[in-house]
Amino acid sequence: MPEDTLGTIVNHTASKVGQIGMVVRDAKRSAEYFSKLYNIKPWYRAKFTQKETIFCGKQIDLDLEILIGFCGGVEIELIQVKNDVENIYSDILKKQDGGIHHIGFFIKEYDRKLASMKSLGVEPLQWGTLKTTGGAVTRYVYFDTVKTCGTITEFIETKFLGLSIPHTQFMVRISALTGDVKRI
Fold first, then answer.
1. For the chain, what percentages of helix, strand and coil (3-state, to nearest 5) are there?
2. Dihedral sign of CA atoms 95, 96, 99, 103 in order
């Protein structure tokens, strides 16, 4: 991300952090640890029926285990890569065996915000679409903000029946009823 875009980038993001994403070797074990150490519980497993992932402009077949919990209203996402496909999480696994990977912002108007970021010279590294068993559709994009911000930035938009759905603990509990996630 070019440094001269920092003054205008705030116009393109949400006003508060909605998610902290962490790459881990074993999501279930990490969730148990976080539950004991930080009292983050319950945890939920996302149930996907379709996934499309583009990394560095190429479609990849990425197999992930994703668990989510909440701490103070912030979604904690644990990401476990289950195959050897080169992807956005590979670097942090190779360099430090996992850790905090990204800061996520839940947004509306995905296409407009993606175009705005690109116009500022902030390029996407990986993006995709996830569809769940209950019918929710999540579009996400990771931006290269490591050199200027110290971490990757993610924009996330989830819709159900065309309506934007917030990622709150209440909505995740509702999603457990619709089959989008499973409480573990």
1. 30, 40, 30
2. negative
The pTM for the full model equals: 0.90
Task: With respect to residue 2, please indicate whether it lies within any of the assigned structural domains.
Answer: no
* Residue type, position 148, single letter: T
pLDDT tens for 98-147 read: 999 999 999 999 999 999 999 988 889 999 999 998 889 999 999 998 88
**CATH code at 59?**
3.10.180.10
Does residue 88 sit within a domain?
yes
Single-letter amino acid, residue 120: L
What domain count does the chain have? Answer: 1
Identify the CA nearest to 46 among candidates 179, 157, 160.
179
pLDDT digits (tens, 9 = 90+) for 55-110: 999 999 999 999 999 999 999 999 999 999 999 999 899 999 999 999 999 999 99
Q: Which domain holds residue 42?
A: 17-178
Which value, to the nearest 10 degrees, does the dihedral of the CA atoms of residues 50, 154, 59, 31 take? Answer: -60
Name the token pair of 126: 């990986």
